[in-house]
Amino acid sequence: MRTVAEFAIGYEQLLDASGNPTGTLPGFASDPAQLTAMYRMMVLCRMFDAKCINLQRTGKLGTYAPCTGHEATHVGVAAAMRTDDVLVPVYREYGTQLWRGVTMTEILTYWAGDERGNDFATAREDFPWCVPIGSQSPHAAGIAMAFKVRGQPRCAVCFIGDGGTSQGAFHEAVNMAGAQKLAVVYVIVNNGWAISVPANEQTAAQTFAQKGLGNGVPGVQVDGNDMLGVRKVMEDALVRARAGDGPTVVEAVTYRLSDHTTADDATRYRSAAELEAAWKLEPLPRTKAFLIARGLWDEAREAQLRAECAARIDEAVRGYQGRTPAGTDAMFDYLFARPPAMLAEQKQIARHYGAGDAQGH
Amino acid sequence: MPRVTLVESVNLALARALADDPDVVVVGEDVGVNGGVFRATVGLQERFGKLRVQDTPLAEGLIGGMSLGMAAQGLKVVAEIQFMGFLYPALDQIANHMARLRHRTRGRLTCPVVIRMPHGGGIHAPEHHSESLEVLLCHHAGLRVVCPSTPAAAYGLLLAAIRDPDPVLFLEPTRLYRLAKQDLLDDGIALALDKAQVLRQGDDITVVSWGAMLHETKQAAERLAQEKISCEVIDLTSLSPIDHDTILESVAHTGRLVIVHEAARNAGLGAEIAATVAERGLYDLLAPIQRVTGYDTVMPYFAMERAYIPGVARIVDAVRTTMKA
Fold first, then answer.
1. Which of A323, A334, A338, A345 would best serve as a mutation to test chain B binding (most B beta carbons within 10 A)?
2. What is the CA radius of gyration of chain A?
């Protein structure tokens, strides 16, 4: 038998776990402002994440999906994107969203059970969080198709989890994107766990990056705890997409250092030893060490950054807690541009009873 | 004025929408070179090009989700699902995303998509090609569901659906695609959504139906007229929202109601209509409401489909029973 097609999956890592460059760094790594901006955003994410978990634990926020450990992936992706690209997230990519202008107040508002959090004041074309797993994948293909129809040099970037790639929707979308050479990049955040199911029980595939190959789409794996590596493979994929050469599947290998959500208890299904080992590979210390070694960072700047982040987070929380409660009209007012007549009557009933009815008051 | 079939009127409306608005894009399986399995899109790709009339991969869930992504960027997407039985994979996208995008982003992103699909049986098609699943769609807030029964209605309502800024599910009665021709002026004028039509005025009993079942319903009304029973026939047309006022007005006049639909009875749309008349028009009723529907079986393979689809005799009998009550 002769070979009719051959495939390979490359692995990219530019910073090792200690923060040492593994080789020559790409062009953007020579710009101190960009490097420190990325690190600053990673620290903000980590601190904001901790605050959100605390707010949930003290009854001041609904169920929340943490991003602990994913910061390099999320920020690396964001830094590679252009402002007029469109982001299609899952529900924990706060680093990407904050970079693109979504506010902490909006994120808090969303996790407080209030859809107003999806009405981003900036990044107006970015998609809201997507809860039904994998179902966001074809949205990104459609967005990229709109760019193609209109001849716009823009890209869609779609996040999905390791578990999400088991959904048919992911494969349908990647297949379509490949067939039509759409300007879209699918970023699989392989954080090891789909709630309680480990990645190696999710699939027999050796990598998640290869899930593009069956659909004719190249894949690349990157150390998702290495912000330089993530940004590099994303920049390459976006250049390729913008040139009309089609989509790429990027697998960022990281680790979910938190529970799945605040409603989950990961100690039920994974070992303390595994978690401890994962903390040794996490993105923040290596990035800090790299910046310090380059003379771009020190403990004084670290302390100042953390104080600034704490103040920004407090301000965002105040904005969130001070928001006006939504009235019951909000259930009815946004379903249609031209609401059918029947909704008017139900809107009046809801106004009359308010939320008190559900609580038996 | 050309005389056209219902499927030709769909083609005329699509061509008109594509010509009038550069944001209109037609997508679906075999809608390009082949012109659609029912020829609803014939000639469109040749005229408007491959980007505006696109053959998609064979994946209905993808068609749903991709259409939403395109629409969120401001395109007005007209997607075709080849047969209603293949709608199920797209329901996730329709229910979880299309119906909710405007609502959950507080109007920031919207979904001006029309999904067209053949509806109902009676054309000797393979299994899964003859379904009447409108109730699956009508239950979801945020969607409009439309089912025309004449070429002129198909033309005007499809234009209205495409121009509407929200998702519209457009059910085309397969049995009526080529059943009759009608004079149609291709004038680009849309009809109003959300409205039922009184097809035939009458005094004794109101008969509500939609889509292909209006064919049998109108025949039944003719036959009953010979017995001096005067039927007022209402074409529901808008399956969601339902134009209850038109039905209630008619029932206030006639005092009797029969609802005819091809879909199964259990939790069908007939129940919603009957319940609303019971809530708001009970004292106008002179007799219990009757439903004439498909059975609570699966839609049978075509050898048995005529036994499943309510025929003229069943409708006539239901009206007679109601008149005697």
1. A334
2. 21
